[in-house]
């Protein structure tokens, strides 16, 4: 069955940066849109005022003859009215009157609208054969001497190209300024986030130093908002250490308190008495089992278990001291141990746990090996993890362990061969310690030496 890897959550800094950046982009975009719309309205109003001023100029310079003929000013309000394709057009429509400026000749412009006197209209862009145009129209009534009224509508139109050109210039300028403002604001915002989140990063770094054993607790130099958190963390660290010490001392006291009564009982069994042989054997077996329990509890007391806040221990020097002692014990058999230990390999935990792990596994290998034992230690350093992973392998060239006995072998009190002396609790102690560190212990056959291979894997820590 395939499993989908959980997606790592984004960091606080990344979340805040994304949130602030999106808010900044939305704000600047909305600001740019609002400013452009305001400028567009302002530009349209300016065009309306300009076109209306042209209409009023034509009105003020125009007149009607007695016969109703329209006389326009000789000089237009803008010389572009005289140039074809200038983009500025004028026209007059009304009762038997139709006039176009030289610039509007041959153009189909929207000058057909008739307005009531005093009414004005501004609209656009209106499509024509010259493109989109903005048109201002004004209706007027001219009274002749005979009392007749002539209704006319003055029109002035301007091509939309100038309007678009001004909008584009403004938009480009606006984008330049807003883009510059965005870069500056994003940089300021990034620096503010770095400065604001610095105490949190300091807490994380200090906590890593505590875990590595470089300092005892978190210092009291954080902002007041974080002090309750750091005090609580320090309390957890202190309580963990105190609880581990109490647990170790309690087990040690219990085991030591049982040693003397057991010694007395063993001595009594060795002396001649009225106890028959069958009961003597039964009592001896129970005393032996109690003695094994005492030895096991003493070993557990020495092996204090997983601790989050422990200094890293160099492995090679501890392994050398254990192997040196074992080679002397098994000197008559000529067993030697080879090392393949990665340079700088460290164990994050208690020294007693490391000694129990290496001591039990190596002693077991020395017992069963013909003449050769191999200790291999490697580290795993995946990116993004706070603490490295560790793999410990102990191999021998002994007879190996059958598949059906491998699981049973890790249970308390079970020995690979009843003829070999020992309490049978060494590997169960190793199992307990490995579990306390959230690791894994496996047993298989050595590819290189042919005997048993014990592998301990401690995963990296986020």
TrEMBL record:
Enzyme class, first EC level, given as a word: transferase
Catalytic activity, EC: 2.7.13.3
GO MF terms, alphabetically ordered: ATP binding; phosphorelay sensor kinase activity
Domain Histidine kinase span(s) in chain numbering: 253-462
Keywords of the record: ATP-binding, Kinase, Membrane, Nucleotide-binding, Phosphoprotein, Transferase, Transmembrane, Transmembrane helix, Two-component regulatory system
Protein name in the entry: histidine kinase
One Gene Ontology term, aspect cellular component: plasma membrane
A Pfam family: HATPase_c
Subcellular location: Membrane
Domain HAMP positions: 194-245
Keyword Hydrolase assigned: no
The reaction(s) this protein catalyses: ATP + protein L-histidine = ADP + protein N-phospho-L-histidine
Bilayer-spanning residue ranges: 16-35, 174-197
Principal localisation: membrane
Taxon lineage: Bacteria, Pseudomonadati, Pseudomonadota, Gammaproteobacteria, Lysobacterales
InterPro entries: HAMP_dom, HATPase_C_sf, HATPase_dom, His_kinase_dom, HisK_dim/P_dom, HisK_dim/P_sf, PhoQ/CarS-like_HATPase, Sig_transdc_His_kin-like_C
SMART domains given in the database record: HATPase_c
């Amino acid at each position: 069955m395939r499993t989908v890897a959980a997606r790592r959550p984004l960091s606080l800094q990344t979340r805040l940066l994304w949130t602030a950046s999106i808010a900044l982009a939305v704000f600047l975009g909305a600001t740019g849109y609002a400013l452009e719309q305001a400028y567009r309205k302002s530009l349209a109003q300016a065009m309306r005022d300009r076109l209306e001023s042209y209409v009023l100029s034509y009105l003020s310079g125009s007149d009607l003859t007695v016969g109703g003929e329209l006389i326009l000013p000789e000089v237009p309000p803008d010389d572009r009215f005289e140039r074809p394709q200038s983009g500025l057009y004028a026209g007059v429509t009304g009762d038997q009157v139709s006039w176009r400026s030289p610039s509007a000749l041959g153009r189909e412009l929207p000058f057909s609208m008739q307005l009531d006197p005093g009414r004005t209209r501004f609209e656009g862009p209106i499509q024509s054969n010259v493109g989109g145009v903005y048109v201002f129209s004004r209706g007027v009534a001219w009274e002749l001497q005979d009392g007749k009224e002539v209704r006319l509508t003055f029109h002035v139109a301007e091509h939309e190209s100038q309007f678009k050109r001004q909008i584009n210039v403004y938009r480009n300028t606006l984008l330049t300024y807003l883009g510059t403002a965005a870069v500056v604001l994003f940089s300021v915002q990034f620096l503010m986030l770095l400065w604001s989140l610095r105490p949190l990063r300091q807490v994380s770094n200090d906590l890593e130093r505590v875990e590595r054993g470089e300092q005892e607790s978190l210092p009291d130099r954080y902002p007041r908002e974080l002090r309750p958190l750091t005090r609580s963390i320090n309390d957890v660290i202190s309580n963990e250490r105190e609880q581990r010490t109490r647990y170790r001392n309690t087990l040690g006291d219990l085991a030591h308190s049982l040693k003397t009564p057991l010694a007395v009982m063993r001595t009594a069994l060795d002396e001649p008495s009225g106890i028959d042989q069958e009961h003597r054997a039964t009592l001896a077996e129970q005393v032996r089992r109690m003695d094994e329990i005492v030895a096991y509890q003493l070993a557990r007391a020495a092996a204090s278990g997983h601790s989050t806040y422990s200094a890293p221990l160099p492995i090679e020097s501890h392994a050398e001291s254990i192997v040196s002692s074992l080679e002397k014990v098994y000197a008559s058999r000529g067993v030697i141990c080879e090392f393949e230990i990665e340079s700088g390999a460290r164990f994050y935990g208690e020294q007693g746990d490391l000694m129990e792990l290496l001591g039990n596994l190596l002693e077991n290998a020395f017992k069963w090996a013909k003449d050769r034992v191999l200790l291999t230690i490697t580290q795993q350093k995946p990116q993004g993890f706070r603490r490295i992973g560790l793999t410990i392998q102990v191999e021998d060239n002994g007879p190996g362990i059958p598949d059906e006995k491998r699981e049973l072998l890790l249970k308390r009190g079970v020995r690979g061969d009843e003829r070999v002396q020992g309490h049978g609790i060494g590997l169960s102690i190793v199992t307990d310690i490995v579990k306390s560190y959230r690791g894994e212990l496996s047993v298989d056959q050595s590819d290189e030496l042919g005997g048993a291979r014990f592998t301990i894997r401690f995963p990296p820590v986020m």
